[in-house]
Amino acid sequence: MACFLQAPMAYAIVSSASAAASSRAVRVPKPLKLSCGVLGARNAAKIPMPPINPKDPFLSKLASVASSSPETLVNSSANPDTPPFLDLFDSPKLMATPAQVERSVSYNEHRPKSPPPDLPSLLLNGRIVYIGMPLVPAVTELVVAELMYLQWMDPKQPIYLYINSTGTTRDDGETVGMETEGFAIYDALMQLQNEIHTVAVGAAIGQACLLLSAGTKGKRFMMPHAKAMIQQPRVPSSGLMPASDVLIRAKEVIINRDTLVELLAKHTENSIETVADVMRRPFYMDANRAKEFGVIDRILWRGQEKCPSGGYYSLKLVS
């Protein structure tokens, strides 16, 4: 607020000899007012001002209102229950959000410079490839790429393939992928120079069971409550196909079945006739039965023995 200096003025009384009985006072101008702000402007300019964050939404809004309609600030109602000028905001925000505040070096020095990788990338860093879905084209593409990358990184270190998949079908038996999806991953495994440690967790059905048995001999494992199952390939939905096209597809399925039988017989060390006979209907195997059939070599159980994955995973081998 402005203060004022008041300068006193004398009243002049004019007297006249001819009018001795009457006298008249002369009106004097009002007192002069001098603003203290003008006098102290030079001293006020020397007072240091605190730094203001230009990104603070409260200050930005306040400056915008002051420039456009300053009467809003002057006529703002004073409510003792709320801070001043808070009514200018639809959703009050007194401070800048953490993302808007300039972080100091000491606060930000331990934060990652880039977003954290996704889970498959973290597993890949431990040379683990996880198949946790039916074998559809997207899964096949990712798995083959990961296998090729791990061999390029180190052709001598083993690769750990964890399997929990229903193969080229869903759990209800509906076909979701072609048999070539499983054969593509199988061929990629056979081309690798690395040892392949396969571990069944959950289920390994159809083509997934073939991948489980295709691991390096002696390095094929199975969790104690996991299930393996081999079955004949299924004909995809024919829809409105002509009869000749359905026959062509049926012949292709038979060829894929014979190929699957031959590969399973090779890796389980059973005869082709034995594998073909059990595949007439879905053939389920628990861990012990899968070991007897030759799909796996050992069963994993809880303990403190060293097991696949290159470290201690609180599992032990059950012979």
UniProtKB/TrEMBL annotation:
Matches recorded under SUPFAM superfamilies: ClpP/crotonase
Gene3D superfamilies: 2-enoyl-CoA Hydratase, Chain A, domain 1 (3.90.226.10)
InterPro entries, alphabetized: ClpP, ClpP/crotonase-like_dom_sf, ClpP/TepA
Domain of life assignment: Eukaryota
Family assignment from sequence similarity: Belongs to the peptidase S14 family.
Protein name: ATP-dependent Clp protease proteolytic subunit
Naturally occurring in which organism (per UniProt): Hibiscus sabdariffa (roselle)
